[in-house]
Specification:
The protein is 94% helix and 0% strand. The chain is mainly alpha-helical and 205 residues long.
Length: 205
C-alpha cells in the first residue's frame, strides 16, 4: 500500500511538473505571439504612413508636371501668334512694294509723254523719293521676313523641346524608360536655339 501511495505521489509530482512546464511554455508562446502582433501592427501603421506619403508626393509631382506643360503650351501658342503676325506684316509690306512699283511705272510713263518740260524735274524728284521709299519698304520687308524666319526656327526649337519634355513627363507618369532619341533631340534643339540667337544678334549689329 505504501509503495502504491509513493508511486502515485511520484506520478502526481511528475504530472504537476509537466503541467507547470506546459503552462510556462504556453505563457512564453503567448508573449512571443503578442510581440509579433505588436510588430505587425507597427509595420502596418508604417506602411500606411509610407503609402500616404507616396500618394501625396505623386499627386504633387503630377500637378507640377501639369503646370509646366500648361506653361509650355501657352508659350508655344504665343510664339505661333508672333509668327502669324510677322507673316501678316511681311505680306502687307509686299503689297506696299507692289503699289510703289506701280506708281514708279506710272511716273516713268508720264515722263516719257511729257518730254523735257518743267515738270520733268519735279517728276524725277518724285521718282527719287519713291525709289528711296521703296528701298526703305524693301528693307523693312526683308527685316520682317528675317524676323519671321528666326521666330519660326525658334518656335520649332521650343516645340521640339516641349515634345521631348512631354515624353519625359509621360515616362515619369507611366514608369517607362525614356526614348533613346530624347537626349539627342534636346541637343539638336539647343543647337538651333543658339544658332537663332547668333543670327538675331548679327541682325541687330
Amino acid at each position: 500500500m505504501r509503495e502504491s501511495m509513493a508511486a502515485l505521489s511520484q506520478e502526481m509530482t511528475a504530472m504537476a511538473q509537466a503541467e507547470s512546464a506546459a503552462k510556462e511554455q504556453c505563457r512564453a508562446a503567448q508573449q512571443e505571439a503578442e510581440g509579433h502582433l505588436a510588430v505587425l501592427e507597427a509595420k502596418q501603421q508604417q506602411d500606411g504612413v509610407l503609402k500616404d506619403e507616396i500618394a501625396r508626393l505623386s499627386a504633387g509631382e503630377v500637378e507640377r508636371l501639369q503646370d509646366e506643360t500648361n506653361i509650355n503650351k501657352s508659350y508655344a501658342d504665343a510664339v505661333r501668334a508672333d509668327i502669324a503676325q510677322a507673316e501678316e506684316e511681311a505680306e502687307r509690306l509686299s503689297e506696299t512694294v507692289k503699289e510703289k512699283e506701280a506708281e514708279i511705272t506710272t511716273l516713268q510713263t508720264q515722263l516719257q509723254e511729257a518730254g523735257a518740260s518743267s515738270e520733268l524735274v519735279q517728276q524725277m524728284q518724285a521718282i527719287d523719293a519713291l525709289t528711296q521709299e521703296m528701298a526703305a519698304v524693301a528693307e523693312a520687308e526683308a527685316a520682317a521676313n528675317e524676323q519671321c524666319r528666326v521666330a519660326q526656327e525658334e518656335a520649332e526649337g521650343h516645340l521640339a523641346v516641349l515634345e521631348a519634355k512631354q515624353q519625359q513627363d509621360d515616362v515619369l507618369k507611366g514608369g517607362r524608360p525614356a526614348p533613346c532619341g530624347a537626349g539627342a533631340a534636346g541637343r539638336r534643339v539647343q543647337g538651333r536655339d543658339r544658332e537663332a540667337e547668333r543670327r538675331a544678334q548679327g541682325g541687330r549689329v
